[in-house]
Amino acid sequence: ILNVEQSPQSLHVQEGDSTNFTCSFPSSNFYALHWYRWETAKSPEALFVMTLNGDEKKKGRISATLNTKEGYSYLYIKGSQPEDSATYLCAFMTAGNKLTFGGGTRVLVKP
Amino acid sequence: SQTIHQWPATLVQPVGSPLSLECTVEGTSNPNLYWYRQAAGRGLQLLFYSVGIGQISSEVPQNLSASRPQDRQFILSSKKLLLSDSGFYLCAGTPGNTEAFFGQGTRLTVV
């Protein structure tokens, strides 16, 4: 069983503050690292798919970096807004197309 | 765009009864397909994945099974449900090395 770990499990952020959190994954058999945003009662929404070491991707106020050699990725939210409140999931895909999710980081942005 | 139809949305079943959850895919051919379960307060645990018709990889030994009788059909089954099978079941697919798409999920309560 692959270990994909996310930390912290939850965090509270004041509106307007920036925050970041981590996904760690095995450094072997890497194919891609995914990030999703998941709101209660909805399907997860794709944010990024990253494949290359050193990749950096950005979507609005959210960005992500990838280090495949040491097995970690960071997700950043700049200037957090209440609508950013959600669970953020990372998922590790192997060359054999096995897609394993981390436990998620639950973000609550306080107005 | 790719979509997954997953049903039912909610299900209450007695202990010892059988289970059959089905998802069907539209908008792509030969996707990788996945079944996940989220127990209360936990992340998405990978149960089964399939890279093609009749090809099933099992991740967690349990009383569940999966089948892929057609390219765009993925079925999760159990002959006898346990209380511990309660949870949120999510079907997902990837067309390749791109972001995953998801069904709406099934909330299963075993009583």
What structural class is derived from the secondary structure elements of chain A?
A: mainly beta
Overall number of strands of chain A: 11
- Helix segment tally of chain A: 0
Give a short account of the largest sheet of chain A.
6 strands, mixed
How many angstroms does the end-to-end distance of chain A come to? 39 Å
Radius of gyration based on Cα positions of chain B: 13 Å
Low-confidence runs of chain B: none
Mean pLDDT across all residues of chain A, rounded? 94
Silhouette of chain A: globular
Q: What's the rounded overall pLDDT mean of chain B?
A: 93
Helical proportion of chain A?
A: under 10%
Estimate the helix proportion of chain B, in percent. Answer: under 10%
SSE order of chain A, one letter for each helix or strand: EEEEEEEEEEE
The SSE order of chain B reads EEEEEEEEEEE
Describe the structure.
The complex is a heterodimer of chains A (111) and B (111). Chain A is mainly β and 111 residues long. Chain A is globular. Chain A has strands spanning 5-7, 10-14, 19-24, 30-38, 45-50, 56-59, 62-67, 72-77, 86-94, 99-101, 105-110. By secondary structure, chain B is mostly beta strands. Helix content of chain B is 0%, strand content 59%. Chain B is globular, with a radius of gyration of 13 Å. The relative contact order of chain B is 0.34. At the A-B interface, strand 4, strand 9 and strand 10 of A face strand 4, strand 5, strand 9 and strand 10 of B.
Task: Set down the secondary structure blueprint.
The complex is a heterodimer of chains A (111) and B (111).
Chain A: E1 5-7, E2 10-14, E3 19-24, E4 30-38, E5 45-50, E6 56-59, E7 62-67, E8 72-77, E9 86-94, E10 99-101, E11 105-110
Parallel strand pairs in A: 2-11
Antiparallel strand pairs in A: 1-3, 3-8, 4-5, 4-9, 6-7, 7-8, 9-10, 9-11
Chain B: E1 3-7, E2 10-13, E3 19-26, E4 32-38, E5 44-52, E6 55-58, E7 64-70, E8 73-78, E9 87-94, E10 101-102, E11 106-110
